[in-house]
Every structure is written in structure tokens, then in C-alpha cells.
Amino acid sequence: MLWFKKKNRQKTEIDMTKLPKHIAFIADGNGRWANSRGLARTLGHKEGKDAIKRVLDRCVELKIEVVTMFCFSTENFGRPKEEVDYIFNLLREVKGDLLDSLLKRNVRFRHMGDKSLLYKDIADDLEEMEKKTASCTGTIFNLALAYGSRHEIIDAVKKIIESGETDISEQSFKKYLYTTDLADPDLIVRASGEKRLSNFMLYQAAYSEFYFPDKYWPDFDAKTVDDCIIEFQKRKRRYGKI
Length: 242
Known about the structure:
Blueprint: E1 22-26, H1 30-35, H2 41-61, E2 66-73, H3 81-104, E3 108-112, H4 120-132, E4 140-147, H5 149-163, H6 170-174, E5 187-190, E6 209-211, H7 222-232
Parallel strand pairs: 1-2, 1-5, 2-4, 3-4, 5-6
Helix pairs in contact: 2-3, 2-7, 3-4
């Protein structure tokens, strides 16, 4: 089963000359989606996996340069072990199909997070996908897994201390972050209607636009992506200027 399918979707409402270069999604609400339907929370994560396919598919179709998806935080390790294991088993199940689809669609895979916190086989799988898609030149799919922004910033400070570098600027600091060579997100979208970042890209979000659709992540689809972009295109971005 391929993760991507070509679709002939109308793009009339979207200004194709003003697309965000980097969209970051906080994939929130899988468990609540399931609970609202009287289902086990794990089924919400399964549906959330399918939403990742739909959203990434549409972003690739639109040629969005970078798509970040925040799917598992450093804090999420505090959830019941059965739920954590189920989430990582989903990644194990889709890894082969995902890698094939990324290569066929010229999508480069990036992992954003601390691999040392992950099961070794998961960390190895992520590294393999990074290596095998390194020469892809299309959309970058940046998967935030075992990620926390405060953890990232502390990691960056430790790396600076180890390097001995003392003349630190905003640009030199950025090279120590997980997003070292990626543009900051133009648009951050959080599913589920919650209006907070929850320790996500705190440094990189300084001038991001925010959008909080009132729907859980498993309900996200291509139309949701279009709606997010249309909302983004209504905004005026002044970066502190007039």
C-alpha cells in the first residue's frame, strides 16, 4: 500500500504564488477522537496514522517545501506503556510502505527529536529512512518524534559549550538546533481546538502564524490542508514592521 496517491484536486481557492514554505502540524486529539466515539484510544492513533498520509499527500501535491508533524513528545513517554508501545508498533508496521512512497515521490525524510530516547530499532529505522531519502529533492517530511522544544534548546546549549564557541548570534545558535538547515515554520497548525504550543518549536515559532481548527487530528484531510493555507493567506505578516 502506497502512502501517496495522485489526485486531481481543484486549487482555485488557493493562491499558488503565496504558499507557506514550511507548515508544521501538531497532530493532537487522537485519543479524544476515539473516546468521543466510544472506542479504545489505540484506535484513535491508528486513525491518526491515516491522517498523516492524507495531510502529507496534499502537501506534497502542493509542493510545500517542508512539512513538520509533531507526533510524539518527550512528555508522551509518561503515558501508559501499552499506549506508547502501540504507537511505536504503528511506525514499525508502516515503515516499509512509507519509505517506498517517499522515494517514489522524491520526498526527503527528516527526524526531529532525541533518538537516544527511542527504542533502538525505531531509532535505526528513522536513521535508515534519513539516509535512503537524503538525495530526494522534493518536499521535506520532518517527523517530530521524541521531541520537546525545551529539550532541544538545552541540547543546543550543551553542544555550544562542547564546541567552545563563545561569539553566539541568532544564526550561529540556530545551527545547533534540530532544524539547523530548515526554514522556520510559516504556519503552525494545531489539531483538536487546543490553543497552545505544548513545548513545540518554541524558538522557531517566533514569527509563525497560528491556526487552531476545531477538529481532532484523525479528521484532518486534504480539504483541511487547503483550509489552513487559505487562512494563512488572509494574514498580514509584518515581522515587527509597519
